Amino acid sequence: MSLSPTHHHPDGAERPVRQVPEAAAGVDYDVCGTMAPKTYDALMLASFGGPEGQEDVLPFLRNVTGGRGIPDERLEEVAVHYRTNGGVSPINAQNRALIAAIEGELDRRGHDLPVYWGNRNWEPYFPDTLQRMVDDGHRRILTVTTSAYSCYSSCRQYREDMGMAMEKTGLEGTVDLDKTRQYFNHPGFVEPFRDGLREDLLSLRGELGDDARIHVLFVTHSIPTADAEAAGPRELSAQLASEAGAEAGEAEGADLYSAQHLDVAREILAGVPEAEGVEWSLVYQSRSGSPQVPWLEPDINDAMEALAGEGAQTDASGRAVAGFVVVPLGFVSDHMEVIWDLDTEAKDTAAELGVGFRRTGTPGTDARFVSGLVDIVEERMGLRAGRAAVGCFPAWPDVCRPDCCVKVMRDGSVRPTTSAVDAAVRGLAEHGRGAEASEGAPAAETAADVEEA
């Protein structure tokens, strides 16, 4: 990814919200992967999980890195992030608050849908939550994840998690367990970032002066380049990535994972007149895994050094970069990786460079974000016309193809989908539209476990 700054020149008008037709009545799914309306009797907020105390930190990290044989001494290098916060991940309180907000919005709209909570890597685990829901009498369950974008760790892996939970509990064939679409381009996710960017630009200009050269860094979680290239619907990825990259100023386009973020960055900027003429870049954080495995770059700290460090170029007016506004557009809430990687490490880098620093908030429990999540639930229930989406991408499909966001293993093979979660995915495989779905697949050789990519 080039570090050449992109200049934003808003046209003064809001971009239209894209509306995509619903699936035809009586059809389980259409060619775009849109599910026909269904009824549900409960929701599950599906998330990554995090420790609740010092004694939980190492067991939690062992879960995250399960199967890789990483010694505890190395895990302790990451454990310090949590230990400095009392061993507690902020994501837990944030998820409880989000559940309360979703329940409140559901109640306001007259929906009698209880919201449960399940995690991939810590209590309450998915199988336990699923069993509890069934014990409480629920059989038609819709999951909403705390990951907005489409890639293996943030979408497909949740489908695999749910499939394995169904297998472990023996509930296959007795429970309908579906998942909502990815929502990175839903206006309810984008709009809170616009407010944050506007406020922090004005704040930093108040500190540095109106003529100060400020660079906006849109940041998301780095992932292996192989995972980035496998992200999204395979039949659409090349076309959509090329379109998004070109519109965002990337001459050669981008992988679909990066292209999603580039498009959201453009949409954020389009709604902030105060950002006219600002330079911006997409950067990455939280790289892990073997140094021999290529990951998306540049790292945010390296980017800051290149843009504002010794030898950095000045602009046409002779100005050096005087400050950064960091927008964590890849994340739903201010979890540990946001707090440590941005509020600690990136902020320290800015201080060492002698430049200003602001970090915008994430959607969290912003009313527009919560309302957007409930809108998507209503989409699946046939209670909302159209499928809202902004930018160059259409609304993401409800149903993922069996080869969507495939995980590339170390030997070059891909991991097939485990138990299909959405009934329509089974239908896709049965009707020959995807032959890679199978049960009993081996455990993934995961190169990246993303807290909330």
UniProtKB/TrEMBL annotation:
Reactions catalysed according to its record: Fe-coproporphyrin III + 2 H(+) = coproporphyrin III + Fe(2+)
Segments for region (Disordered): 1-21, 228-247, 431-453
Function: Involved in coproporphyrin-dependent heme b biosynthesis. Catalyzes the insertion of ferrous iron into coproporphyrin III to form Fe-coproporphyrin III.
Protein's organism: Micrococcus lylae
Protein known as: Coproporphyrin III ferrochelatase
HAMAP family listed in its UniProt record: Ferrochelatase
Entry annotated with the keyword Calcium: no
Residue stretches of biased makeup (Basic and acidic residues): 8-17
